[in-house]
């Protein structure tokens, strides 16, 4: 595959232009993206990625287009999993909701720069040393095993306390309060860093850790540096909008780690098979290649897409997934009701009450096992529901709007599950209320 210097320059300029457009028109003025805005721009970035695959198809052929699409889909799936960790970090630093997209865009920019450097290093190593395929394959197999071990252990893990964040907290002394989206502020007459700078460092450093998994994964699907770069770049573009679009769904993808473990394990085996085929290590088959079957890009793409589809469907429609949807939905509606301001329209109160009643009718279908597994504290959960129910009865009886409650963080955290356990470890609240302090959307 021959890629001219002109194509490289145009591609890099286009990606840099998209990032600059985001900085100038989307995050310069702090605001929380609405669902419609996030959906439109997520669709635009996904559309651009798919159109680029057609460009590869017409320019270099179906094989390379398949490699690009396989790489893009894999990197996008890994990025969605990374979004949950970003959520944990952002919530643990209590970043205001309207400033979160600036933090995310900085993290995406830093990730693109760091991963580009790693891509060229990896490409250079592969060109010089065929044994690197063994190393990359081993990294992916170990990562897959680590994901499975974490799921089987079923224990909370504090993603907001990795060593990058601990180092940043140790060496970067910041003020306790945010000053808008400023990186520095004046405190007691002295210029000091704000928590905004610290969280940006934490996001950027965590991005580098993610690259240690994602770069070997993409090289397991294509060794074309141009395709690796563009697949990684397009998977990162639009990640900011995707965060606001699916943040309510992240907690429902309860089997995503299993799906990613299968995909990374599959690519790891594919890499080792390729390494055996290209073998030049003297202690393996006397330095001669081993006659093993290699996995084609068609099979790779089928496995990756198939596993992701099954993972999402199982997460959303399995008994546990449906139970999590009902419990999470009921808790969110109840929280929204008890924190409604007194001047909230009566129609809004009745709509919330109707939605809660809809979820409540599904509660008997949830097994005791799933209740025990998904509810961190059933007492707090039912106390929240009781307060919401009592406020609505009072409103229906008297016509007077009750005063809103301030839901304590620990009291609001009734739902755990595979994802919310991690949130509690990081000291956050429910998905919709903890990401910046705003009230949860119904």
TrEMBL record:
InterPro entries per record: Integral_membrane_TerC, Integral_membrane_TerC_rswitch
Membrane topology note: Multi-pass membrane protein
Protein name: TerC/Alx family metal homeostasis membrane protein
Keywords in alphabetical order: Membrane, Transmembrane, Transmembrane helix
Chain segments carrying region Disordered: 392-442
Principal location class: membrane
Protein family (similarity comment): Belongs to the TerC family.
Lineage: superkingdom: Bacteria
Pfam family of the protein (one): TerC
Cell compartments where the protein resides: Membrane
Database matches in PANTHER family: MEMBRANE BOUND PREDICTED REDOX MODULATOR (PTHR30238), THYLAKOID MEMBRANE PROTEIN TERC, CHLOROPLASTIC (PTHR30238:SF0)
Keyword Transmembrane helix annotated: yes
Segments passing through the bilayer: 6-26, 38-58, 78-96, 103-123, 129-148, 197-219, 225-246, 253-276, 296-317
């Amino acid at each position: 595959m021959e890629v001219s210097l002109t194509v490289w320059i145009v591609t890099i300029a286009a990606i840099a232009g998209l990032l600059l457009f985001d900085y100038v028109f989307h995050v310069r003025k702090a605001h929380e993206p609405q669902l419609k805005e996030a959906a439109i721009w997520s669709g635009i970035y996904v559309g651009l990625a798919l159109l680029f695959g057609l460009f590869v198809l017409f320019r270099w052929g179906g094989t390379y287009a398949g490699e690009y699409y396989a790489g893009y889909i894999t990197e996008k799936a890994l990025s969605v999993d990374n979004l949950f960790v970003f959520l944990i970090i952002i919530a643990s630093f209590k970043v205001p909701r309207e400033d979160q997209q600036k933090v995310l865009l900085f993290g995406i920019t830093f990730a693109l720069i760091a991963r580009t450097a790693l891509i060229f290093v990896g490409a250079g190593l592969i060109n010089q040393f065929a044994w690197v395929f063994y190393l990359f394959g081993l990294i992916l197999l170990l990562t897959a095993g680590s994901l499975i071990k974490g799921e089987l252990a079923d224990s909370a893990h504090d993603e907001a306390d990795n060593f990058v964040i601990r180092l940043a907290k140790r060496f970067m002394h910041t003020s306790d309060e945010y000053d808008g989206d400023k990186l520095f502020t004046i405190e007691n007459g002295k210029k000091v860093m704000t928590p905004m700078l610290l969280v940006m460092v934490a996001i950027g450093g965590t991005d580098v850790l993610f690259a240690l998994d994602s770069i070997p994964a993409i090289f397991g699907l294509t060794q074309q540096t141009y395709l690796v770069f563009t697949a990684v770049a397009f998977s990162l573009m639009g990640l900011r909008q995707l965060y606001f679009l699916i943040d309510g769904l992240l907690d429902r993808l309860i089997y995503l780690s299993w799906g990613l473990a299968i995909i990374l394990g599959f690519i790891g085996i594919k890499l080792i098979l390729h390494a055996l085929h290209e073998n030049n290590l003297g202690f393996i088959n006397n330095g001669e290649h081993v006659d093993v079957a290699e996995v084609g890009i068609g099979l790779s793409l089928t496995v990756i897409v198939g596993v992701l589809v099954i993972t999402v469907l199982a997460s959303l429609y399995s008994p546990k997934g449906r139970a999590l949807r009902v419990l999470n939905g009921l808790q969110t509606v109840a929280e929204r009701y008890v924190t409604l301001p007194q001047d909230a329209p009566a129609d809004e109160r009745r709509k919330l009450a109707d939605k809660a009643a809809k979820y409540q009718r599904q509660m008997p279908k949830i097994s005791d096992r799933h209740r025990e597994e998904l509810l961190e504290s059933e007492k707090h959960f039912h106390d929240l529901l009781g307060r919401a129910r009592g406020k609505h009865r009072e409103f229906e009886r008297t016509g007077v709007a009750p005063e809103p409650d301030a839901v304590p963080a620990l009291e609001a955290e009734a739902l755990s599950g595979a994802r919310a356990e991690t949130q509690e470890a990081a000291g956050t609240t429910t998905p919709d209320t903890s990401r910046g302090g705003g009230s949860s959307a119904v």
